Amino acid sequence: MTPRELARSAEGYRWRDERDWEKRAVEIAFALQPWSSKSISPQQILDAIHGKSDDTDFEHMAGLDDPGAVLDAMLAKQAERKKGG
């Protein structure tokens, strides 16, 4: 393998790795969205993962500064639905 071929092979692996991270960021944003009080984009996730953002605390980014309060609210809604249904 020539140095040029090796460089192109490495570039291909980097490209695939970036696409893999993009897929994961979409899935993470999709999974966090129901719990968030504000919109989360895949780009925000990627920036946080790669250190391009000051906002590396995912709970803060998702608007979940107090996850316990969110869980309590969700459980209260479930209890209300059980009473009504």
Structural write-up:
- The protein has 85 residues and is mostly helical.
- It has helices at residues 3-32, 42-49, 58-61, 67-84.
- The chain is built from four helices and no strands.
- The model has no long low-confidence stretch (mean pLDDT 80).
Brief summary of the model shown:
71% of the residues lie in helices and 0% in strands. With 85 residues, it is mainly alpha-helical. It starts with a helix and ends with a helix.
Which percent band covers the strand fraction? under 5%
- Order of helical and strand elements: HHHH
Oligomeric state: single chain
Low-confidence stretches: none
**SS-derived structural category:** mainly alpha
Q: How far is it from the N-terminal to the C-terminal residue, by CA?
A: 68 Å
On the 0 to 100 scale, the average pLDDT is: 80
Summarize the main sheet: none
Radius of gyration from the CA trace?
Answer: 20 Å
**Number of helical elements:** 4
Tell me, briefly, the overall form. Answer: elongated
Q: Helical proportion? A: over 70%
